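Hi support team,

I've been running sequence recovery on a batch of backbones for a student project. Most finish fine, but this one hangs at about 90% for roughly twenty minutes before it completes. I'm not sure whether the input is malformed or the queue is just slow. I've pasted the structure tokens below so you can try to reproduce it. Let me know if you need the job ID as well.

Thanks,
M.K.
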């Protein structure tokens, strides 16, 4: 035990000599899409709705701070980001005079990626887990007392991508984000039946940052 503590203490003392710690700010855009293979038909107390996902990606923004600990070519980069995303659906009600309406749900969240990567000169490759904490709730998809919307408050996913450092100050990142949790959005009717609205959402993110 004493030898182990001595080795650990030596590593901690020597680490600053072989590593570099930077902090920075970053901001960017994301394109988010959700998968929903089939239209959802839900019924409760004689009311039937049909929900379809609109095709195409939706845009969001993200901004926040990051730190980067570099040890030779290896680096670890935790981030704290405020992010937005949106889902868009078409909603139709049986026996209604209106064919369908478009409904957009906007989500605000706090993303906490922890990226681990390798540097090859100014180029970087990285990957790591990301936790997303929902801030507040979007408006209900169906405004009907017979239905209750449920949204995941915390989800776990992953990010992977490439980056470029310019003059050791400007950073550019392109990443893909996937979710490890299915069915983040659900609707429950008065009988307790749950309807899953989406599979795992995914996104492409591009960001620009400045290191200090």
């Amino acid at each position: 035990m004493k030898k182990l503590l001595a080795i650990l203490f030596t590593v901690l003392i020597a680490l600053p000599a072989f590593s570099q710690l930077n902090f920075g700010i970053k901001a960017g855009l994301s394109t988010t899409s959700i998968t929903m293979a089939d239209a959802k038909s839900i019924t409760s107390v004689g009311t039937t709705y049909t929900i379809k996902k609109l095709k195409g990606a939706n845009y969001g923004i993200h901004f926040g701070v990051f730190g980067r600990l570099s040890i030779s070519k290896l680096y670890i980069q935790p981030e704290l980001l405020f992010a937005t995303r949106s889902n868009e659906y078409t909603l139709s009600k049986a026996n209604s005079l209106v064919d369908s309406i478009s409904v957009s749900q906007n989500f605000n969240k706090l993303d906490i990626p922890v990226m681990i990567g390798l540097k090859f000169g100014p180029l970087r490759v990285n990957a790591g887990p990301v936790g997303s904490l929902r801030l507040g709730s979007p408006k209900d998809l169906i405004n009907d007392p017979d239905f209750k919307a449920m949204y995941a408050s915390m989800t776990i996913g992953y990010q992977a991508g490439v980056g470029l450092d310019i003059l050791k100050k400007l950073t550019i990142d392109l990443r893909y984000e996937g979710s490890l949790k299915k069915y983040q959005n659900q609707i429950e009717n008065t009988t307790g039946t749950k309807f899953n609205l989406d599979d795992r959402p995914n996104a492409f993110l591009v960001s620009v940052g400045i290191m200090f």
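--
Follow-up from support: It reproduced on our side and the slowdown came from queue contention, not your input. DSSP finds one helix and 13 strands in the chain. No action needed from you.
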